[in-house]
Write a structure and sequence with these properties.
- The structure is a homodimer.
- Chain A has about 300 residues and is mainly alpha-helical.
- Chain A has helices at about 1-5, 5-25, 30-40, 50-60, 65-90, 105-110, 115-135, 140-150, 160-165, 170-195, 205-225, 225-230, 235-240, 245-265, 275-290, 290-295, and strands at about 100, 105.
- Chain A has one domain (about 1-295): Farnesyl Diphosphate Synthase (Orthogonal Bundle).
- Chain A has 16 helices and 2 strands.
- In chain A, strands 1-2 form a two-stranded antiparallel sheet.
- In chain A, strand 1 (about 100) and strand 2 (about 105) form a beta hairpin.
- At the A-B interface, helix 3, helix 7, helix 8 and helix 9 of A face helix 3, helix 7, helix 8 and helix 9 of B.
Chain lengths: ~300, ~300
């Protein structure tokens, strides 16, 4: 899976994101909003979701420089923009009240709360617009926008996932499926749909990977360091949020992460790219496990 | 312009909005988010933007029960959902900190700030999804989503308009065009596009009406009563926001409103529906002028 591990795929993702942000700016637009949106997107994190989207598109036969590939790139960027929007809103004082993100001040600290709300809003819109700007058959654009919308809004997208935290009775499975799984499932199904493959066959892979990343995030919140992560730690306990590490204990959560990685590998549909994609998942699972825990487990 | 004045059009808009909200709910979705979204949309205000969208679609020849009409209804609902989303976010403590809206507690007062942020986000997504669900040719759906996206995001949509309030130097023309004009222009151009007409010929009408509503809003903020408006008054002065009534004085703002109504009538493209549409604009202009001022002017 060249697309997920090589530098080329990452560079392409950054280029598509840069073009998307440029389209949201104009000399007679409000400059601070543009700056806040850039701050939310650059420099990025691991860009896991867009890399996954492109890896699946590649496994489904999309060739670089084809129309299918351009659409996959647009979908990958759109998904990352939605992810960045959710981080900006999640960091707001009324949610996590996080001072930092990716090692820099959170958007609401750097630009104030009003611009953080608006930058998140505008990034959501920009996600859809990025798909609309792709040179592709309208029917395929519409299919991808349906996938995108479902993964972000209500009742099953990331906004719904975050909203479960506001309920008095939280359904843990629905919470995690929506908060993390939805956008990972969008990445795999959109990658397949962009390449002209049947998207639903790729949903389970995205859902298992989403769960794995959530467990890894819970573990790092408990045993990672703020410097390493670029954001505060110990927030799940402080904010009373559901956490696999708190619920299962650290060894239990590590076992769960390993089980989910295995399940993700098993969920890769058969095909010429399957072996490469499974190998990649194995590498990612290693990367996800906090080093300290990996050493202890070894 | 039957579509804009009769009860039938309004009832249809409510029905399309109800269907849109129902699609954002599920038994296994988070119930408070669904309730907050409903609170933001029902009961509605005057539904000016969707009525304008349908009136233009009708003037461009869209026949009720046709595919073009269904698409116009979806566009009308999408535009109203975007408007409701912006009201929910504008009412947040970090912006207007408004306790009430449409005579009821604002969403952040009724459901808390986190759900108000998320309900706004989910309504933006639902706006796009409502267009995606319309039974129509994908190419026309894409064209309408381009119109919708431009009117909501950056650099020229309502999020950008609101963001001008965060700049140290505010460009008043750009501010008002984005904050109010953009969604009115979306209403007229989307109505035309849904009917298969050239949308740009209808932009000026939307922009002039948007300016007129903004001036009317500024006037009512200064001379209206909170009971009549269902929201706090005197906020422009208190929050240091640009206001035509503060800038031009009340008589000057009344003259400006009348001038804009005339300009809107002049901007109606020639065609079989033009006379009706002009008459309607005249009625709306009368309705917009606070009664007290109309009496003083008479």
């Amino acid at each position: 899976m060249e697309a997920m591990k090589d530098i080329g795929a990452l560079a392409r993702i950054e280029r598509v994101l840069a073009a998307a942000l440029a389209a949201a700016e104009a000399p007679d637009g409000p400059p601070l909003l543009a700056a806040a949106m850039r701050h939310a997107v650059f420099p990025g994190g691991a860009r896991i979701r867009p890399r996954l989207c492109l890896a699946v598109a590649r496994a489904c036969g999309a060739e670089p420089a084809s129309e299918a590939w351009a659409l996959a790139e647009a979908a990958a960027a759109a998904i990352e923009l939605m992810h960045c929007a959710s981080l900006v809103h999640d960091d707001l004082p009324c949610f996590d009240d996080a001072a930092s993100r990716r090692g820099r001040p959170a958007v609401h600290r750097a630009f104030g709360e009003p611009l953080a709300v608006l930058a998140g809003d505008a990034l959501i819109v920009l996600g859809f617009e990025t798909l609309l700007r792709a040179a592709a058959a309208p029917a395929r654009q519409v299919a991808l926008m349906v996938i995108l919308g479902r993964s972000v809004g209500a009742p099953f997208g990331i906004a719904a996932g975050q909203a479960w935290e506001c309920e008095t009775e939280i359904d843990l499975a629905h919470y995690q499926r929506a908060k993390t799984g939805a956008l990972f499932a969008a990445a795999t199904t959109a990658g397949a749909a962009a390449a002209g493959a049947a998207p639903e066959a790729w949903r389970a892979l995205g859902e298992r990977l989403g769960e794995a990343y959530q467990v890894a995030d819970d573990l790092r919140d408990m045993v990672g360091s703020a410097e390493e992560l670029g954001k505060p730690i110990g927030r799940d306990l402080a904010l009373g949020r559901p956490s696999a590490a708190l619920q299962l204990g650290i060894p239990g959560a590590v076992r769960r992460l390993q089980g989910l990685a295995d399940a993700a590998m098993a969920a890769v549909p058969a095909g010429p790219g399957a072996a490469d994609l499974r190998a990649l998942i194995g590498q990612e699972a290693e990367r996800l496990l906090p080093k300290e825990l990996a050493c202890r487990a070894a």
